[in-house]
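2024-03-11 09:14:02 INFO queue: dequeued item Oligopeptide/dipeptide ABC transporter ATP-binding protein, len=337
2024-03-11 09:14:02 INFO validating residues
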Amino acid sequence: MGVLLSVKNLSISFQTASGELKAVRNVSFDVGERETLAIVGESGCGKTVTTKSILRLHSRDGGVVKDDSQIIFEDQNLITMSKKELNQIRGNSISMIFQDSMTSLNPTITIGKQIAESMFIHKKAGRAEAMLRAKELLKMVGIPDVEERVNNFPHQLSGGMRQRVMIAMAIACKPKLLIADEPTTALDVTVQAQMLDLLRELQKSVGMSVILVTHDFGVVADFADRIQVMYAGHIIERGLKNEIFQQPKHPYTWALLNSIPARALQRKSELYSIKGTPPDLSLPLSGCPFSARCEYCMPICKKRLPEETYLSQTHGVSCWLTHELAPKVDMPKLDGG
Ligand code: SF4
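2024-03-11 09:14:37 INFO prediction written
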C-alpha cells in the first residue's frame, strides 16, 4: 500500500485574548492508499484543526501554521501551494464531510444543484449530465424518491438524509481522500450505524482513503484500519486497530477505551470517567501533557515530554512508562474488548 498523504511536523496556533494557543504540536502521520485512519480524542485535542489544515480550512478560523510544517499529497505540499492550485484539489481529489449538515449545505439551493456543482467545476460536466449524475449519487447513498427529492431544499430533509446528501456531494468527483469529521455525531444511534455502513461500502466502490475524526471509540471499532489518539495537540498513541483496542499502552488511551458505554454494560460496572480536565493550551506545557490527570505519573513526567517509542512497526506510544528504565506497571485488564 502506497502513501497517499504525509503530514510532517505540523504545528498550528491561534492568537487568543490570553495569548498564543498551540492547538497542534509537531504532529506527523501518513495515510495509506485506500486505508481508513481514525483520529480519536476529546474536544479540543487538535484532531479537527489537524484535518481542517489538510485543505487549509484552519486559516478561516485564524489558525497559523508553523513554517516547517508540511502536508504532502501526491508529491505536492498543500501548505505552500497557491489558492488556485488548492481549489483544484478541494472537493475533487480531497473532500470533507462535517458533522453539521444544516450549516454545511446551502439552504437556498436544491440538493441536486449542490451535488451537481462540483461536477460543473472540476469535471467540466454539462448541466444535464451533472444532474443525471447527482440523481445517481442520491440513489447510491440511499435517498428514496430521487426524482422528487433532487429538487428539495436541505430543510425539507431529515438529519439523516441531509448527511447522506453531504456524503453524495463529497464523493461526486470520486476523491482519493475523504475526511469525515464526526460524521455521525448529530444522528441517532440507528442512523449512525447505517451511515457508517454506507461510508464503508462507498469507500470500497470509490477506492478512496478515509480519515475519520471522532471522539467516540465505539464508532471506530468496525471502521478503522489504524487509529491515532490525540491529546492536547499531540499524538500520544498510534497503531493498528487491534493494537490499540487490545494492547493500549498509554494511560489516556486505556482510560478512553474504558469510557465506552458498551464495555461498561458488558462488564456490569459504572462508566469509567477520566478525572480532571485537559491543560490550557495557551499556557506553557512542561513534560507530559496528560501528567495532571494520570494515575501513573512519575517525577520525570512533569519535567520532560516523553518521546515516541515504537513497540512494533506500527504501534507508537508517547509515555515514559514504555521507557526501559521505567517501573513495570500493568494497567488493569480491559474488559469487554
Ligand atoms: Fe502518565 Fe507519565 Fe505516561 Fe504521561 S508520561 S501518560 S504522566 S505515565
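2024-03-11 09:14:37 INFO annotate: Residues 250-251, 288, 290-291, 294, 296-298, 301, 306, 319-321 surround iron/sulfur cluster (CB under 6 Å).
2024-03-11 09:14:38 INFO item closed
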